[in-house]
C-alpha cells in the first residue's frame, strides 16, 4: 500500500513539474469580435484585459509569454481553454498581443512559462489585477443583442415565400 502512495505522489510531482517548465509553440490572439462572449471559466472575454487560453494550466494561473522575434514579454492570466490550433500553445488577448508585437504576425512561435507563487509577489499580483481592472473601467463591455437562430430561419422562409 505504501508503494502505491509513493508512486501516486511521484506521478503528481511529475505532472506539476511539467507545468513549471517553459513551453514553446504557436501563439495566437483572440479577435475583438469575441468581446463579451463567455470564456470557459465563465468570465466574459475582454480584449483590453491581459488574459489567455491554455489547454492544461488551471484557471487563474499567471503566465509569462515571450515573443522571441521582438524579444518582448508580458504576463497574462489563464481564464479559458484553447488554442485548438495544431501546435498551438496559447491564445492571448488583443492587448497582450499588441504588447508582444504579435498582432502583425497573427500566428507565430512563442515561449510560455507559468509563474510560481514565489515569483508572483503580492505587489506584482496587486499591480496586475489593478492593470486589468483599470482597462475594464476605461473600455466597458458593449451590450450585444442576442439574435436567435429561430428568428433568422423564419426570415429566410418568409423571403422564399415572397419570391414564389
UniProtKB/TrEMBL annotation:
CDD domains, sorted: DPBB_RlpA-like
Biased composition (Basic residues): 142-164
EC number: 4.2.2.-
Signal peptide range: 1-20
Ranges in a coiled coil: none
Gene3D superfamilies: RlpA-like domain
Residue ranges of the region described as Disordered: 135-164
Domain of life: Bacteria
Keyword Lyase listed: yes
Keywords: Cell wall biogenesis/degradation, Lyase, Signal
Domain RlpA-like protein double-psi beta-barrel residues, every copy: 23-112
Protein role: Lytic transglycosylase with a strong preference for naked glycan strands that lack stem peptides.
Family statement drawn from the similarity comment of this UniProt entry: Belongs to the RlpA family.
NCBIfam families: rlpA
Name of the protein described by the UniProt record: Probable endolytic peptidoglycan transglycosylase RlpA
Originating species: Aquirufa regiilacus
Taxonomic lineage of the native organism: Bacteria, Pseudomonadati, Bacteroidota, Cytophagia, Cytophagales
